[in-house]
Specification:
By secondary structure, the chain is mainly alpha-helical. Among the domains are: about 265-340, Tetratricopeptide repeat domain (Serine Threonine Protein Phosphatase 5, Tetratricopeptide repeat); about 385-463, Serine Threonine Protein Phosphatase 5, Tetratricopeptide repeat (Alpha Horseshoe). The protein has helices at about 10-20, 30-40, 45-60, 65-75, 80-90, 95-110, 115-125, 130-145, 145-160, 165-175, 180-195, 200-210, 215-230, 235-245, 250-260, 265-280, 285-295, 300-315, 315-330, 335-345, 350-365, 370-380, 385-400, 405-415, 420-430, 435-440, 445-450, 450-460. It is elongated, with a radius of gyration of 34 Å. The termini are far apart.
Length: about 475
């Protein structure tokens, strides 16, 4: 390792040279601490453990070195060993805040958040710089969904360090989780009064206005964020989303494109640009940006489904089928995808595939009436009358008095020769919705020509 002016470089070089030989060099406790911190920071935990072992052999009474050992135990999820070591240290150094912090960390990892909070409160009594402990307290309260207490602790962090944007984000998150958007706006405006040039605060203010559908106020806030920092990608993205809501699609595209120039292009930006072009009926451009979306992130199913939908609209069903299959390869539990797959296959007269798609929807607990009816209609169309009838009978368990089910039960029962049962279904269907029989005539034209059926319908019409 080359030497540099870095303060830990010389001890680190000596330490690594020692590891390559059988010699044992002496390091003072501070030097060992620097070496161990270096290895921990760079994720070299095996070397950190070696350094801790040698350090404690040379400085067996050092509390700081023992704390580093317990920290490594915690990293390895050896909580029992860490806690035993910490308890020993606590009897020697009862006012050491780091002991309480590490014990709280163990409790937190074991989901004992209330106990962790108590220990962190003890740590606050002895710590010189409160910010880190207050932030940890805030996080523990978040784990307990105690958003008021969490927010108060993050607010205390800002009292110590006004530019602690992590705490500011967490405060707004707490407001968001309780849908207290008006309160969040009041808080952010107070923050901006103290620091009018905080682009982060303006950005968060814009987000709150956007949630409340106060679009002009949101645009104003995002514009201020951009004026303060013209390279603030997040502000351009949020501004573009507002412009979309206002149906100002060309302006939205302009802002999304700016984000691709400032930073590496994202699949999200390309997807939104494509959607804006689609709404402007610029279908070729929409397709270009959807293709850029999936090229940027091939695992983003929204890009593939967007391509499937736009090609379906253009009646290019073979391409639509290709892209819907891509979406399903990523997420085969998405019932919207299966519905779209069914729709496309139906257009291609691939009826078996269509039926299977609707069955998949039902297996995935998408039991909407239209799914049952569509499956029954496809089965009926391909002549699978028994399965169609069984599908409708299953549907009837959830949709008892629905004309869409009753008329189909009548028609298919009639075709299967179950005339008595069919007439019962017809009478029930006419009771539910007499006019709906006119819709069903196209589906069951032969059935409705039956004289007995016509007589029953005429008798109902008389009433």
């Amino acid at each position: 390792m080359q030497q540099s002016d870095n303060s830990n470089q010389r001890p680190l070089t000596r330490f690594e040279a020692m590891l390559k030989t059988n010699n044992v060099f002496f390091f003072d406790a501070t030097e060992f601490e620097e070496i161990i911190h270096y290895y921990i920071d760079f994720g070299k935990h095996s070397l950190a453990k070696k350094a801790v072992k040698l350090a404690l052999e040379q400085h067996p009474s050092s509390i700081q070195l023992k704390l580093l050992k317990s920290e490594l135990y915690i990293f390895e999820n050896k909580f029992i060993e860490a806690d035993k070591l910490l308890n020993k240290m606590l009897s020697i150094a009862p006012h050491n805040e780091e002991i309480f912090i590490q014990k709280a960390t163990i409790l937190s990892k074991n989901k004992e958040h209330k106990k962790a909070i108590e220990l962190l409160k003890k740590a606050l009594l002895y710590v010189a710089d409160e910010v880190d402990v207050l932030a940890m307290l805030g996080m523990e309260y978040l784990f307990l969904d105690n958003f008021d207490a969490a927010r108060l602790n993050f607010a205390k962090c800002l009292e110590v360090d006004f530019d602690d944007y992590s705490s500011l984000y967490n405060i707004i998150y707490c407001y968001d989780m309780e849908d207290k958007h008006d309160e969040a706006i009041v808080y952010l405006n107070a923050y901006i009064d103290k620091d009018p040039y905080s682009e982060v605060a303006w950005h968060q203010l814009g987000r709150q206005y956007f949630i409340l559908k106060q679009h002009q106020e949101a645009l104003r806030a995002f514009d201020f964020a951009i004026l303060i920092d013209e390279f603030f990608v997040g502000a351009y993205l949020e501004k573009a989303k507002v412009l979309e809501q206002l149906e100002l699609y060309e302006d939205a595209i302009e802002n999304y494109l700016i984000t691709t120039e400032i930073d590496d292009p994202t699949a999200f930006a390309y997807l939104r640009i494509g959607d804006c072009h689609e709404k402007l009926f610029n279908f070729d451009l929409a397709i270009q940006y959807y293709l850029k979306t999936v090229d940027e992130d091939p695992l983003l199913d929204k890009g593939w489904i967007a391509l499937a939908i736009i090609y379906s609209k253009q009646e290019n069903y073979h391409k639509a089928l290709y892209y819907i299959n891509k979406a399903l390869q990523i997420d085969d539990k998405n019932t919207f995808f299966w519905r779209k797959y069914a729709e496309i296959n139906l257009k291609l007269s691939l009826f078996e595939e269509t039926a299977q798609a609707f069955r998949n929807c039902l297996e995935l607990e998408d039991t909407a009436l239209e799914v049952w009816v569509s499956l029954a209609d496809v089965l009926y169309y391909i002549g699978d009358f028994e399965d169609a009838l069984e599908t409708l009978e299953r549907a009837q368990l959830n949709y008892t008095n629905f004309a869409e089910i009753a008329y189909r039960l009548f028609g298919i029962s009639f075709i299967l020769g179950k005339k008595k049962k069919a007439m019962k279904h017809l009478i029930k269907a006419l009771h539910i919705d007499f006019e709906y029989h006119k819709v069903m005539i196209d589906l069951f034209s032969v059935v409705f020509q039956d004289k007995k059926v016509q007589t029953i319908i005429k008798s109902f019409k008389a009433f």
